[in-house]
Amino acid sequence: MTKARLLRLSVVLVSIFMILLIIVYWDNVGTAHFYLHTSFSRPHSSGAIPGITGGEDWEALPDVDEFLAKLLSSSLKQNSSISRKAEQLLVQGSSKPVVSNLEENVRGYDWSTHNARNSLDQEKLQIERQRTLREFCANSSFTFPTKERSFDDIPNYELNHLIVDDRHGIIYCYVPKVACTNWKRVMIVLSESLLDQGVPYRNPLDIPREHVHNTSTHLTFNKFWRRYGKFSRHLMKIKLKKYTKFLFVRDPFVRLISAFRSKFELENEEFYRRFAIPMLKLYSNHTNLPTSVSEAFGAGLKVSFSDFIQYLLDPRTEKMAPFNEHWRQVYRLCHPCQIDYDFIGKLETLDEDAAYLLQLLKVDRLLRFPPSYRNRTASSWEDDWFAKIPLAWRQQLYKLYEADFVLFGYPKPENLLKD
């Protein structure tokens, strides 16, 4: 009887050892393209605690999970020591970014000096932003779609905005039209996920825009399933617990104006075919539209801001497909009531917030956050942009984006919602 038990125990131990060998092999070979060193975890149980919050009882995790969490922490330290020499090289080339991309030159940057340390009490500001978010997430009287679901309930395809940097233990949820291009550049530099002639990029502004937005450049949560299978959701939870998580937001209505300007006032072939043509047909009664955006612009056929608002409010829009990421609500992109973010930045205070965040992440000696665009869409433009939008539409639009206003502490635009 004793021999049989010893045999079963041996089989179990050998199996665990083989699994760990596979894990180590996969992390060091299978993910070499991303320079990652990650670990597995067991599948989550059906009774998993909803959400990922600061008060979650991670001490109750099984021993294997505790071991994997420690392994993850140790791998981060190892990555830090291994990459120290490379980081020293980064310092040499990051004192002042050089604008080398034609598009960036055309847009123009604000290189004016900003006193980040003295302009805002960042620590208190972060406490207040997080308090507001947590209070409304916990407030049962404030509801919006998907609020009550747990992290386990979020479909895998909705986790594609969470970018992971395993080298420094950072998770960034990107929100389009909120400086996401430059934050993606920062993540590429930190994670060394993209090479230029065999050498990792050192300067964020050296990275071409087409590479920045290429999905293959970034490791995102939705890719975990392909790599880790049933272990993926548990591994996400360990990283969410151990890593520093941040996002940047902006006034929801101003973000819509910015999205409209960049996607429909400039010639964009993809957005013309996917969105402008249907809008022009449905809301402007145009037929026989040109097949190319250059022809349409030449003929004076452009989507109006009114067309765009009608499209957002049309119930058929969501039935056909989810909102495009450039105007999808932040709560649907980043799941702030399911993920406990350590840092909430705002575009309105981008320079100060970015400088403070890089200090918190202990990477401010490696790189500088790229400067702001001079032509950034201003909140003072709201009155002009919405002047010709009927009051009823404005009120409906606010309801559509109310959760973003409330969760992130943006005041209700009363002047736009009353006669």
Automatic annotation (TrEMBL):
GO terms for biological process: carbohydrate biosynthetic process; proteoglycan biosynthetic process. GO terms for cellular component: Golgi membrane. It is a single-pass type II membrane protein. InterPro entries: Carb_sulfotrans_8-10 (IPR018011), Sulfotransferase (IPR005331). GO terms for molecular function: sulfotransferase activity. The chain crosses the membrane at residues 7-26. Keywords: Carbohydrate metabolism, Glycoprotein, Golgi apparatus, Membrane, Signal-anchor, Transferase, Transmembrane, Transmembrane helix. Its main location: Golgi. Its EC number is 2.8.2.-. It is found in: Golgi apparatus membrane. The keyword Glycoprotein applies. Belongs to the sulfotransferase 2 family. This is Carbohydrate sulfotransferase.
